[in-house]
């Protein structure tokens, strides 16, 4: 099947003129994902300010171009055929992070691409209670908000203000967000430009210790050294996807270079050269095995994007 190219020469010229080398075309996305998998983006554009983002969003609206925003790529399976349209990365002012203590609280003001691990470390130093629940999640703040990332505590519990930009309204504006397990009510095309998180302030040494022990536990229970994308499936009500997958006998199953991690059954690892098709096939096999064995339907936590043919 012929690939549809939605960007035309006018779009490419406009992006080149405004962004210079920060606009790249037919750019493979594998290096930008934790799985190290994924075909090319028609255009990959690094935007460094709200104005630059608004410029792209206006063009996306005017030309009805598809658009996708990339965080740190830790929850993404990008198809081998790549992503049509414009893929955005937030840089520059979007990566700023300001953490301060104020009236018995710790406040973190973060750009959409600020590092969540860096935020956790700084908030812990000031004694932000509960931040250990976000420790070790390799996310940008924007990606974490989109996913309502967390463990026993989720980022939504701490979010006081979320500012987005979107094609329909390109200038930064505040939105109310509904938070659910690994999901939010954010409109699909809303890009988190910045956010403010607030934590009650407690004993810094105790918070740091809890954070550290979470990091140590992760290293022991997750295949952190091999390319992966965290948990592939959301936990079903009252159970754990990893437990069900293991009980269905799927640990160690392989498809090309992809393997159900022998360490943590809800992780799929790229042991070398895995394609998106390998991972997608393995996901289907695992889901079917759990359905057949236990009658439980697993739902994906990882986001599948782009073309898989
Ligand atoms: C080793 C490992 C451990 C993990 N542990 C956990 C865990 O304990 N808990 C947990 O919840 N997750 C975990 N994850 C999954 C992942 O880290 C989270 O889902 C994280 O929130 C993804 O953030 P990201 O910046 O990498 O987003 P990406 O993976 O790049 O993108 C994910 C989605 O968010 C969207 N997005 C990204 N940035 C923005 C933005 N600025 N505005 C709007 N949408 C945006 C993307 O378009 C995409 O739809 C783990 C992953 C790994 C690899």
TrEMBL record:
Belongs to the MurB family. This is UDP-N-acetylenolpyruvoylglucosamine reductase. HAMAP family: MurB. It comes from Vulcanimicrobium alpinum. InterPro entries: FAD-bd_PCMH, FAD-bd_PCMH-like_sf, FAD-bd_PCMH_sub1, FAD-bd_PCMH_sub2, MurB, MurB_C, MurB_C_sf, Oxid_FAD_bind_N. It catalyses: UDP-N-acetyl-alpha-D-muramate + NADP(+) = UDP-N-acetyl-3-O-(1-carboxyvinyl)-alpha-D-glucosamine + NADPH + H(+). One of its GO terms (biological process) is regulation of cell shape. The gene is murB. Its cofactor is FAD.
């Amino acid at each position: 099947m012929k690939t549809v190219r939605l960007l035309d020469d006018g779009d490419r010229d406009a992006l080149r003129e405004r962004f210079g080398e920060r606009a790249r075309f037919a750019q493979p996305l594998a290096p930008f994902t934790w799985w190290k998998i994924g075909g090319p983006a028609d255009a990959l554009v690094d935007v460094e300010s709200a104005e630059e983002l608004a410029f792209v969003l206006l063009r996306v609206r005017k030309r009805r171009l598809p658009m996708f925003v990339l965080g740190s790529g830790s929850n993404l399976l990008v198809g081998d055929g790549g992503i049509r349209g414009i893929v955005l990365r937030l840089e520059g002012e979007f990566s700023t992070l300001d953490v301060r203590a104020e009236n018995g609280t710790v406040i973190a003001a973060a750009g959409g691409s600020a590092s969540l691990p860096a935020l956790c470390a700084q908030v812990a130093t000031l004694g932000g209670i509960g931040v250990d629940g976000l420790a070790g999640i390799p996310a940008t703040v924007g990606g974490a908000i989109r996913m309502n990332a967390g463990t026993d505590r989720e980022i939504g519990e701490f979010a006081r203000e979320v500012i987005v930009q979107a094609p329909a309204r390109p200038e930064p504006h505040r939105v109310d967000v509904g938070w659910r397990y690994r999901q939010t009510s954010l409109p699909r095309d809303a890009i988190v430009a910045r956010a403010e998180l607030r934590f009650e302030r407690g004993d810094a040494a105790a918070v740091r210790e809890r954070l550290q022990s979470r990091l140590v536990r992760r290293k022991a229970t997750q295949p952190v050294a091999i390319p992966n994308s965290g948990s592939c499936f959301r936990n079903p009500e009252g159970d754990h996807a990893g437990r069900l997958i293991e009980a269905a006998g799927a640990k160690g199953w392989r498809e090309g270079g992809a393997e159900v991690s022998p360490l943590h059954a809800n992780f799929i690892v790229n042991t070398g050269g895995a394609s998106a098709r390998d991972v997608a096939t393995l996901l289907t096999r695992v889901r079917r095995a759990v359905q057949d064995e236990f009658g439980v339907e697993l739902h994906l936590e990882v986001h599948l994007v782009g073309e898989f043919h």
